């Protein structure tokens, strides 16, 4: 076998340079800046400032409110991830069985994906509108006075519901294509061995979907933690008040609205570490159990 | 036409235009959307048409917070506008950053524009000034919280607008409830029931001369008067005499427009919008006060925003900015702004012009804001200056929401507000050192 090699050792470096410089300029540099400013308390205009070491971090850990927001973020992320994956899978399995008008169903289930997060937020605002919203009235029918923006739990429910709704289509698309790539011969062989369709699903189809599910798990957690910003901002109307919010939204509230660059940098460094830990955990512990074909 | 000819023509055109219109261009970043933005554009267009030396371009930058953030980011990048609109809660940030702005008083004096702080109406003079009374930011859209009421609702209940909170609790509210209304709502708890509570009752709001002096300021919010007020609010809410629809401004204004709520506390700047939207007869009057706290209620603070001349601009551009400020504060422009938007005119001369023109005869409610700002001043009514105040307001909103939904007690809430606000103020002091 002939070994391909570059005549000059600088050639590969040169070819890598565009990619590396993009990563450096758009990722490492800002990340480093955030790390640096998390150790300072700075006037937002950049005239004066004090080096405060880990004070910005300590302030966060001593603040009971930060803990409360962290807990909400956990609940939010777990429920959005779980339910949007579950609904996506359920719809995919059902749509996979449909023969007549299949493409109509699929299109109807997918179109939500094209809705931009702030638009989804506006739809959420009108559905959960105080007193008049359709879902508000539905809750009223069952005897619960649903008041978004006033009741902490009602607002939390609305945020989670809209975020799930927004994410179901993409999971649906991925699961559907995953299902369609399960070989027909395996399904037919399984039919002979097991009469129960749910039994067949959990023992044969689901493990074969695992690579898709694993990929979606990571993207959904990332979505729930970071990409729900648009939904949250619109639904809270940029006024958090006594409503729940996620850690990502808190970075915006303190840094952008409040001008506390040091504090919000410390928060984003924590988020960076969190994502790093999550990724390592997922690849180390979960991926070993998944078999790619 | 060949490329060369085209280039030559283009070059000639540019040279011609620069020689023919040697005007100085300045930019103005603001946060006035919708109808307010149109009025801002009208002011700019009129200014540009009124002379041919200067040209101002207004740029809408989103909400108040977004405009301030954009201004800060652009300043750090050296591409900031000449004029930046900064709202009341952001005043400490921009005034604290010495070197970011040119004090408006200096700017006007250096450019030969006559400036006398006493030309401005009493309530707006010192809000954007430093500890020595030098005006730093030019008050622009100035409003103050006032009490709007549905006249039909009050007539039906057989009551008049309450002057004091005692009168509201004993007479007005029960009668309105009897008549089938929710008696009271308001749109901004930190602004109306905190900051302006302190000014209306002439109470100290923060140490260091309400925060104007240098040093680490401490908020004095954990005090009996305001705690009594919030205890009363919670009682009224439980008794159906007051309703709170969340932290959003509009959520609390809508029920008043829908004639469910009889009395609504909002901004004097809300007048223009209300007049266009509602079908019923409404009027406005001064913000009530607690007779038990003071027998001599004072003026309130202004809310809204001011225009700051940003530093690092050429002398010609600063001259243009000064000229624009002179134009902006002229009685005619102020009167137009007042009439179109409902914000108060910032100068005495403009107020006089509005009175002479008979504007308040046709719509008396439009005068309430300015009347309230003209009330006697007290020791603690000139304003407040606290850093990270946007977050302090966030903390207040959060805790007030919890009081009103019964998640916490008044005592605990105010202890939390005091603790978290003072921590924020101490942190802010470090950003200045």
TrEMBL record, chain A:
Transmembrane segments: 12-31, 66-93, 105-129, 157-179, 200-226, 266-286
Topological category with respect to the lipid bilayer: Multi-pass membrane protein
Chief location category: membrane
Classification via Pfam families: BPD_transp_1 (PF00528)
Domain spans labelled ABC transmembrane type-1: 70-282
CDD domains, A to Z: TM_PBP2
Top-level lineage group: Bacteria
Compartmental location: Cell inner membrane; Cell membrane
Key words, A-Z: Cell inner membrane, Cell membrane, Membrane, Transmembrane, Transmembrane helix, Transport
Protein family: Belongs to the binding-protein-dependent transport system permease family.
Known role: Part of the ABC transporter complex UgpBAEC involved in sn-glycerol-3-phosphate (G3P) import. Probably responsible for the translocation of the substrate across the membrane.
Record note on quaternary structure: The complex is composed of two ATP-binding proteins (UgpC), two transmembrane proteins (UgpA and UgpE) and a solute-binding protein (UgpB).
Protein name (database record): sn-glycerol-3-phosphate transport system permease protein UgpA
UniProtKB/TrEMBL annotation, chain B:
UniProt name for this protein: sn-glycerol-3-phosphate-binding periplasmic protein UgpB
A Pfam family matched in the record: SBP_bac_8
Record note on quaternary structure: The complex is composed of two ATP-binding proteins (UgpC), two transmembrane proteins (UgpA and UgpE) and a solute-binding protein (UgpB).
Regions that span the bilayer: none
UniProt keywords, alphabetically: Periplasm, Signal, Transport
UniProt KW Flavoprotein keyword: no
Family per similarity comment: Belongs to the bacterial solute-binding protein 1 family.
Signal peptide: 1-22
Localization of this protein: Periplasm
Keyword Glycoprotein part of the UniProt annotation: no
Role according to the record: Part of the ABC transporter complex UgpBAEC involved in sn-glycerol-3-phosphate (G3P) import. Binds G3P.
């Amino acid at each position: 076998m002939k070994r391909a090699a570059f005549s000059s050792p600088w050639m590969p470096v040169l070819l890598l340079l565009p990619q590396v410089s993009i990563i450096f300029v758009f990722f490492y540099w800002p990340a480093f800046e955030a790390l640096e400013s998390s150790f300072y308390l700075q006037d937002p205009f950049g005239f004066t400032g004090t080096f405060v070491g880990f004070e910005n971090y300590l302030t966060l850990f001593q603040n009971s409110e930060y803990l409360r927001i962290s807990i909400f973020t956990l609940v939010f992320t777990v429920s959005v991830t779980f339910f949007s994956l579950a609904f996506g899978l359920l719809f995919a399995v059902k749509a996979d069985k449909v023969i007549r008008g299949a493409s109509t169903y699929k299109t109807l289930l997918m179109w939500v994906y094209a809705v931009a997060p702030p638009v989804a937020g506006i739809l959420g605002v009108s559905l959960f509108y105080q007193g008049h919203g359709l879902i508000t009235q539905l809750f009223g029918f069952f005897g619960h006075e649903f008041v978004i923006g006033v009741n902490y739990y009602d607002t939390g429910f609305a945020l989670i519901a809209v975020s799930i709704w927004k994410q179901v289509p993409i999971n649906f698309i991925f699961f559907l294509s995953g299902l369609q790539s399960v070989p027909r011969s395996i399904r037919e062989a399984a039919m002979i061995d097991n009469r129960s369709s749910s039994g067949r699903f959990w023992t044969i189809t689901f493990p074969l979907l695992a690579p898709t599910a694993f990929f979606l798990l990571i993207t959904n957690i990332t979505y729930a933690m970071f990409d729900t910003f648009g939904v949250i901002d619109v639904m809270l109307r940029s006024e958090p008040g006594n409503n729940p919010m996620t850690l990502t939204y808190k970075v915006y509230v303190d840094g952008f609205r409040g001008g506390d660059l040091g504090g919000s940098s410390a928060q984003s460094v924590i988020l960076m570490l969190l994502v790093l830990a999550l990724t390592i955990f997922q690849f180390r512990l979960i991926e070993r159990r998944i078999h790619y074909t | 036409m060949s490329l060369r000819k085209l280039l030559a023509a283009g070059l000639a055109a540019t040279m011609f235009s620069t020689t023919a219109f040697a005007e100085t261009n300045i930019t103005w970043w603001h946060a006035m959307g919708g109808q307010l933005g149109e009025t801002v554009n009208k002011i700019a267009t009129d200014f540009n048409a009124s002379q041919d030396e200067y040209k101002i371009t207004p740029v809408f930058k989103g909400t108040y917070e977004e405009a301030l953030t954009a201004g800060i980011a652009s300043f750090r990048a050296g591409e900031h506008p000449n004029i930046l609109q900064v709202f009341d809660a952001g005043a400490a940030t921009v005034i604290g950053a010495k070197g970011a702005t040119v004090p408006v008083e200096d700017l006007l004096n250096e450019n030969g524009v006559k400036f006398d702080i006493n030309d401005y109406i009493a309530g707006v003079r010192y809000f954007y000034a430093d500890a020595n009374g030098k005006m730093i930011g030019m008050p622009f859209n100035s409003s103050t919280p006032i009490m709007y009421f549905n006249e039909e609702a009050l007539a039906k209940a057989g009551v008049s607008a309450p002057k004091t909170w005692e009168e509201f609790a004993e007479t007005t509210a029960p009668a309105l409830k009897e008549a089938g209304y929710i008696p009271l709502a308001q749109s901004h708890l930190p602004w109306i029931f905190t900051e302006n509570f302190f000014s209306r009752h002439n109470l100290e709001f923060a140490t260091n001369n309400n925060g104007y002096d240098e040093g680490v300021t401490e908020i004095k919010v954990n005090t009996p008067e305001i705690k009594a007020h919030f205890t009363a609010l919670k009682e009224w809410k439980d008794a159906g005499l007051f309703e709170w629809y969340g932290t959003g401004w509009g959520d609390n204004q809508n029920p008043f427009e829908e004639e469910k709520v009889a009395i609504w506390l909002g901004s004097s700047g809300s007048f223009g919008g209300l007049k266009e939207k509602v079908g019923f007869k409404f009027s406005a009057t001064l913000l009530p006060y607690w007779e038990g706290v003071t027998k001599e209620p004072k003026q309130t603070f202004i809310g809204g925003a001011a225009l700051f001349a940003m530093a690092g601009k050429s002398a010609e551009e600063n001259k243009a900015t000064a000229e624009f400020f002179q134009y902006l504060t002229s009685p005619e422009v102020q009167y137009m702004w007042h009439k179109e938007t409902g914000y108060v005119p910032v100068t005495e001369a403009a107020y006089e012009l509005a009175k002479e023109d008979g504007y308040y005869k046709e719509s008396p409610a439009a005068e309430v804001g300015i009347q309230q700002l003209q009330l006697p001043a007290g020791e603690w009514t000139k304003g407040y200056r606290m850093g990270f105040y946007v977050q302090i307001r966030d903390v207040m909103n959060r805790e007030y929401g919890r009081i009103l939904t019964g998640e916490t007690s008044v005592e605990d809430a105010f202890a939390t507000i005091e603790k978290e606000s003072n921590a924020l103020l101490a942190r802010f002091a470090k950003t200045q050192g």
